[in-house]
Amino acid sequence: MIGLLQRVSEARVDIAGETVGAIGRGLLVLVCAERGDDEASAFRLLERLLNYRVFADDLGKMNRSLRDTGGGLLLVPQFTLAADTNSGNRPSFTPAAPPELGRSLFDYLVARAAELHAVTGSGRFGADMQVSLTNDGPVTFWLRVPPPAS
Fold first, then answer.
1. Which of 6, 43, 55, 78 is catalytic?
2. What's the pTM?
3. E strands along 33-101, which residues?
4. For 105, phi and psi rounded to 5 degrees?
5. Which domains are seen in the chain, by residue range?
């Protein structure tokens, strides 16, 4: 599982002119399932997102997590994060999970996030989404939980 997290002062996801997910201060995370990922991979990514220390403490150091701050978590599916861009002028999406698995793991991630974190929103798998954000910092990290060994 891949998560591209961005610390934001606000973010939202619109579909066909309707806002389907929005947060204030917190993390916007673009999420991608890779071939071989499973629910354990998704849960491990969620744990890392909730505990990753990207918010400033009283001394201005990045020592506080989303759990510490109670900020929002906005999860957005984006299979293009798994693109293989090593050759040519067109990316290959072979490393991404098949759509059925990607949808299942994204839905699992969103459901578990809602259970574990009070302020959670999401985009919609397979939808044409418009994502708006104000990156705070900017602070952006790429997290990856490798698929389990075959």
1. 78
2. 0.95
3. 55-56, 62-64, 72-77
4. -70, -35
5. 2-144 (3.50.80.10)
- In the set 19, 80, 85, 134, the catalytic residue is 80
pLDDT score for 93? 94
Q: Is 130 a catalytic residue?
A: no
CA distances from 25 to 36, 44, 70, 117 (A): 33, 23, 9, 14
Q: Kindly state the DSSP code that residue 148 receives in the 8-state scheme.
A: P
Q: pLDDT tens across 40-99, in order?
A: 999 999 999 999 999 999 999 999 999 999 999 999 999 999 999 999 999 999 999 999
Q: What span, in angstroms and rounded, lies between the C-alpha atoms of 45 and 42?
A: 5
Q: Is 6 a catalytic residue?
A: no
Active-site residue identified among 79, 106, 120, 125:
79
pLDDT reported for residue 149: 74
